[in-house]
Specification:
heterodimer, A: alpha+beta, Ubiquitin-like (UB roll), Aldehyde Oxidoreductase, domain 3, 5 domains, five-stranded mixed β-sheet, globular, B: Uridine Diphospho-n-acetylenolpyruvylglucosamine Reductase, domain 3, Enolase-like, domain 1, five-stranded antiparallel β-sheet, four-stranded antiparallel β-sheet, oxidoreductase (chain A), Ald_Oxase/Xan_DH_a/b (chain A), molybdenum (chain A)
Chain lengths: ~950, ~280
């Protein structure tokens, strides 16, 4: 042990530290919890950035003992949430503070920069942020944040436009007003699950399978259980015999219940073998190492092709059950079942056939595709392959649970608190009233936190031990035991006439769901349901088949199946245009849907049931295409002046959905507090995207009060009402819709109460700024505080409250087009993204600054998915690149040179104040646009992700 | 995992501490030693932070770069030639560049080293310190290629400084990775001189190949010097036949072979055209 003296944020500390302790660990121990860790000491993501003797460093890569005599600044050195410094405020105002796990570190770096450079260049900002990984909001608005800060410092106010504003008649909606939880996040104050963990907690670690496919023959935990501090070890032998599904989807889920907490059969490298709970992390690790396991190793399958082969090893070979709709031959089907495999329980038929590794399948069509192909002048049929992509949230999957008042209380980082409660209830076999889930701020989810990947085990372990338990995935576990993007093989056949009319489209989607069937029907179907409805074509058919394999698990990821389907469909359309000798843009304009066009294809594209056929509603597709084409100068060839670099352009039409009509359901309620301020309780789960701000704006807009008069409580299953969760682009539309309805109900009730108190008719009363009721008849006013007080006196009529529930069968589809210009080096295969323009119709963007940043973030991450991100497995199924630097994610250096996000102004007829969804759709454009641009540049079609230099060189015949 | 942290007060003290502590290592920036999955094995860290090795000085005909100079200092210093700044920028993170040192990067000599191919190709010299078997302190000035060729034998040697000649010499370096902070598949360094009669001499070709280490392509060097390889295509073909490669997560053998040859070829072409020095 060493005693050192260091100064942190101006405060002198004399501390004793172990020689192996990292500087980050010391700082956290001293209470500077803003110094976070998202890469397990890799020195990549920058969550651990501090200023050390006036130089930015990674605290994880320094020893604490080095800090003797040092002066250190952490994010706590800047302003607090109630007194932010100029750059912190500018970051919130620019919209970059979203899931915000790295926002304090970024603010610290930019504060440091402004202390050293009074007017930093774009290049200097880029350099300073080069060691910070931002997945959610991209980097573009960080430049804006610095600009705003400088303007504020120089003139006392912002001069630059933060974002366009929408709907002049509204005050808060459609205006950049900052994110209500931005201050606490950017200041690095307690916000996340890890900040809620109290001393005395127990640690859980997981023993994971070294094999991709094996039966556990024997597991011996005796020695481990006897070790100091060990509380319990859960294995397949003592876990509940309950089959369930980790996907957080509406109940009954369109995913099979094909797993228990721990299974006798392991199905991927990293699968759970045992969960160890001990008093300390070190004790849990030591016990994990003492567990002895004997495996019967089986031959694995890794690809769709391998899974399809006759006689292929069966990933699931247990008993199949149906909760409804069981086929007549089920008994016969189960004759060959191996009990060691457990069960696969379908909630309803999904056309699965586990004996052929098929987890689910779906088929559908409109018109007559064969007739359509016969009518075509040219038919193209190509196969497109996508890779397995990691979500890489900065905050890994984690949970903290304890018993309080006989109930299981869990702090979770989740997109679906109510599904967490339901699934934990099911697994633990305890009623929901015994469980409380508190959704904390989510440090990045992107779909992977739609799945209940750690809460199930933490909940059960806490329930049976009665101990407070904290579990956190390592970064490697994030790669090998987390939901990822399904790899897919999509064959698209498309026919077209010489005039560019598409006569028929057929999509054959073969998806790889990995070891378990999370989202196994819905993600692959999404590859069709969020793409085919872009086209005005009478003859369309799709076949979707999802296979079990032994790759690491897959599940939900931002965009769901749409990024993959869009890639296949748009590139095939470009290939068809190329063969027909017509311009791809002209073809898109000719075949795109228009408002009023009846989307018959949706009938076969419901999620496990018949879909709703609706006409195209609000639609900004044409504006996005025409504006984007103008911006990129479509049709104008660009010469790089360097013979090695060829320039090309591409684009893709995109769409998504706004939640799941007929399936999703959101609720909210609101109340007037005694001083005339408001509180709204939303079931929605804000995962950093600004959903709470939307709820607050619903109240502010209705009652003409500023946002700081509104408090939002969300995602707490005790105080809030049910919401299906933040997925499928449902947040703004459904949860925001419920908040809108709750605000309107509260308004109605408040006016009724005001009418009673004022002796007026409610129809003569209006609400006006700064927060009062005004009679247009008598001119009398009543402020909210007085109204509330009088309603709550001994003779009052009770608290003024409102509630709202939102469901719909309407399909408010966001549309857009992404345009790109690339330069491709014909000698090295390198691709430079020179220009990227994302144009999207989000209806009324309620938080336009946040919407823009989500477009930048989603576009950049899909550029990464398209060009370099890919999980690589060896021949045994071991992921060989389970770190950031081996896997590769886009940093600020990877940003397109000219990057623009444009909001197309379209008002929707159903969404709250005309809003539709925004962020998921932005992941759909990059892959097809880039592939088409690469073809335009060098004449090769990139038909598999990622479009790496090596693949491009191969296509070019260079190697 | 470091269990003990010692601070050396002099270079001789550092060497003595190293000798008297089994499983000890010199501790420069710490970015490699402390990082996840570090390949550096050591239980005792001997800090070099107090030795004054963190300066860059103009020594007349040479530039002396202390081994504790950070990669960011290289970029910021007006004394440092462009090629070395380029190499330092291969470390894509500013924050990491503030910590990582030139000496540490050389000492690791990793297969994805930012600096090694360029520095070794540049014919820099290294100022080193050692203890004799009897414990007598000595300093030496050695060609950097020796440090590369006999790297394991220098395990106990303390790097004091890198000395760059100001001679008229072309040096270039290129890195091939999927993104700015991905592991590099290949990093190449090339240098050569050309006299008034256009005679090419002092050719150095070094290639860091992921999975295969930092390689000197001596046959290619000799062939260029002998006039057997005169065109970019000649050089590329020779590199392709010479470089050792392996399939791994950064790319296939074919790709690495191709891109290494392309990189060296590009630098050779720039050299022939009288590219940047």
């Amino acid at each position: 042990m060493n005693t050192i003296v260091c100064t942190v944020n101006g405060k002198k500390h004399t501390v004793t530290c172990k020689q192996s302790e990292s500087l980050r660990e010391l700082l956290v121990r001293l209470g500077y919890t803003s110094v976070r860790d998202s890469d397990d000491r890799e020195g990549f993501a920058g969550s651990d950035t501090v200023i050390y003797n006036d130089v930015p460093v990674y605290a994880n890569l320094m020893l604490a003992v080095q800090a003797d005599g040092a002066e250190i600044k952490t994010a706590e050195s800047m302003g607090t949430s109630r007194n932010l410094n100029v750059i912190q405020q500018a970051m919130i105002d620019a919209g970059v503070v979203q899931s915000a796990y790295n926002a304090p570190a970024a603010a610290l770096l930019l504060t440091w920069l402004l202390e050293h450079e009074s007017n930093p260049s774009k290049e200097q900002i880029k350099q300073v942020l080069s060691g910070i990984f931002i997945r959610d909001a991209g980097y573009e608005h960080y430049y804006l944040a610095v600009k705003l800060a400088l303007e504020k410092m120089q003139s006392g106010s912002y001069k630059s436009e933060i974002s366009p504003s929408f709907r002049d008649e509204l005050t808060y909606v459609g205006k950049p007003k900052g994110k209500v939880d931005g201050p606490q996040l950017v200041a690095g104050e307690a916000s996340f699950v890890e900040d809620r963990v109290l001393p005395g907690y127990h640690s859980m670690v997981i023993l994971r399978s070294p094999y991709a496919h094996a039966y556990i023959k024997k597991i011996d935990t005796k020695e481990a259980l006897a070790m100091e501090g060990v509380v319990t070890i859960i294995t397949h032998e003592n876990c509940p015999d309950v089959f369930y599904m980790q996907a957080g989807q509406g109940n009954p889920e369109p995913s099979p219940h094909d797993r228990r907490l721990l299974n006798r059969k392991v199905r991927h490298v990293g699968d759970r073998v045992a969960a160890i709970v001990a008093e300390t992390y070190e004790q849990a690790i030591a016990a994990r190492d003492a567990i002895k396991v004997e495996y019967e190793v089986l031959k694995p399958v890794f690809t769709v092709e391998e899974a399809m082969e006759k006689g292929a090893p069966r990933v699931h070979n247990g008993v199949v059950e149906y909760r409804s709709g069981a086929p007549e031959n089920l008994e016969e089907y189960n004759k060959d079942a191996d009990p060691r495999d457990g069960k696969v329980v379908y909630q309803f038929p999904l056309h699965g056939d586990i004996r052929r590794n098929i987890a689910a399948a779906a088929h559908g069509q409109i018109g007559d595709v064969e007739k359509g192909f016969k009518e075509a002048d040219v038919v193209v049929e190509e196969t497109y392959q996508t890779s397995q992509i990691q979500c890489t949230p900065l905050e890994p999957h984690l949970a903290y649970a304890r018993i309080d008042g006989g109930r299981l209380v869990m702090n979770a980082s989740t997109q679906v608190p109510y599904h967490v409660r339901r699934i934990v209830s099911w697994v633990c076999q305890i009623p929901e009233n015994k469980i409380r889930i508190i959704k904390e701020r989510v440090g990045g989810g992107y779909g992977s936190k739609q799945d209940i990947l750690v809460e199930d085990l933490v909940g059960y372990a806490t329930w049976i031990t009665g101990k407070p338990i904290y579990y956190r995935n390592t970064r490697e576990e994030e790669f090998i035991a987390n939901s990822t993007r399904h790899p897919m093989r999509m064959t698209v056949k498309m026919g077209g006439k010489k005039d560019g009319t598409i006569t028929a489209v057929y999509m054959d989607v073969r998806a790889n769901t990995g070891p378990y069937g999370n989202h196994c029907l819905t993600v692959p179907m999404n590859a069709c349901s969020k793409t085919l409805p872009l086209l005005k074509c009478d003859n369309m058919k799709f076949d979707v088949t999802t296979y079990y394999t032994n790759i690491p698990p897959t599940g939900a990821y931002q965009g769901y199946g749409a990024p993959k389907g869009t890639y296949a469909l748009m590139v095939c359309m470009a290939e068809l245009a190329d063969k027909l000798g017509i311009d791809y843009y002209d073809m898109a304009m000719k075949n795109k849907v228009e408002p009023g066009y009846m989307l018959e294809i949706l009938k076969g594209l419901g999620e496990g049931r018949e879909g709703n056929v609706v006409p195209v509603g609000s639609c900004g597709l044409e504006q996005a295409l025409t504006q984007g084409a103008k911006m990129i100068e479509w049709g104008k060839k660009v010469d790089s002046k360097d013979p090695d670099w060829k320039v090309g352009k591409g684009f893709a039409m995109i769409q998504q959905g706004s939640g799941l009509p007929g399936l999703d359901h959101s609720n909210a309620w609101a109340k007037l507090l005694t001083d005339g301020t408001f509180q709204i309780f939303s079931g929605g789960a804000d995962l950093g995207t600004g959903l709470d701000t939307i709820s607050a704006k619903m109240i502010s807009e209705a009652f003409c009060v500023p946002l700081d008069k509104v408090t939002v409580t969300s995602g707490d299953t005790d105080s809030c009402t049910f919401d299906t969760g933040a997925y499928a682009s449902s947040g703004t539309y459904f949860s925001g819709g419920a908040s809108y309805k709750a605000a309107q109900d509260l308004k109605k009730n408040l006016l009724d109460e005001a009418a009673y108190q004022m002796g007026e008719k409610a129809e003569d009363l209006i609400l006006r700024s700064p927060g009062e009721v005004y009679s247009t008849k008598s001119g009398k006013t009543l402020d909210y505080a007085t109204l509330s007080h009088d309603a709550l006196t001994g003779t009052g009529r009770g608290q003024v409250m409102g509630k709202g529930s939102f469901t719909t069968n309407h399909n408010s589809i966001p549309y857009g087009a992404h345009f790109v210009q690339v330069a491709v080096n014909v000698r090295t295969g390198q691709v430079k993204v020179q220009k990227y323009y994302a144009l999207q119709d989000a209806g009324t963007p309620i938080n336009p600054e946040l919407a823009l940043c989500q477009m930048y973030g989603a576009s950049l991450k899909s550029i990464g998915h398209s060009l370099y991100e890919q999980m690589l497995l060896d021949e045994n199924g071991v992921c060989i690149n389970p770190t950031f630097s081996e896997y590769g994610v886009p940093m600020i250096a990877e940003q397109p040179e000219d990057f623009k996000a444009i909001l197309i102004d379209i008002n929707d007829e159903v969404g709250p104040y005309g809003a539709k969804s925004i962020s998921e759709i932005a992941t759909n454009g990059a892959a097809p646009a880039l592939a088409i641009a690469i073809h335009d540049a060098v004449g090769v079609w990139m038909r598999s992700w990622p479009f790496s230099p090596e693949k491009i060189l191969k296509e070019l015949g260079k190697m | 995992m470091i269990q003990e942290y010692l601070i050396a007060n002099t270079t001789e003290d550092a060497l003595n501490k190293k000798r008297s502590n089994a499983k000890s290592i010199f501790y420069a920036g710490g970015t490699e030693i402390n990082r996840l999955h570090s390949t550096v094995e050591g239980q005792t860290a001997i800090s070099l932070s107090k030795l004054g090795l963190d300066t860059i000085t103009d020594e007349g005909s040479t530039i002396k770069i202390g081994s504790m100079v950070s990669l960011q200092q290289l970029i910021d210093s007006p004394l440092i030639p462009t090629w070395l700044k380029d190499a330092a920028r291969f470390c894509g993170s500013f924050t990491k560049r503030n910590m990582a040192t030139i000496g540490g990067n050389l000492a690791i000599m990793s297969d994805h080293s930012y600096l090694a191919p360029a520095l070794i190709a540049s014919r820099a010299r290294l100022l080193t310190a050692n203890l004799t078997e009897k414990g007598v302190y000595s300093e030496d000035n050695i060609p950097i290629r020796e440090y590369h060729a006999y790297h394991k034998q220098f395990a106990g040697t303390l790097l004091l400084a890198v000395s760059l000649s100001k001679d008229d010499r072309f040096v270039g370096t290129l890195r091939y990775a999927l993104s700015s902070q991905n592991r590099a598949a290949v990093t190449v360094g090339f240098s050569a001189t050309k006299d008034n009669e256009q005679v090419i001499d002092h050719v150095r070709v070094f290639v860091a190949v992921h999975g295969k280490g930092v390689q000197r392509l001596e046959k290619v060097e000799n062939a260029i010097e002998n006039g057997e390889l005169t065109s970019r295509e000649d050089v590329q073909l020779a590199v392709r036949h010479t470089v050792e490669v392996v399939d791994d997560m950064t790319g296939s053998s074919d790709y690495k072979r191709y891109i290494a040859s392309e990189g060296v070829g590009q630098l050779f072409s720039a050299f022939l055209k009288g590219g940047a020095q």
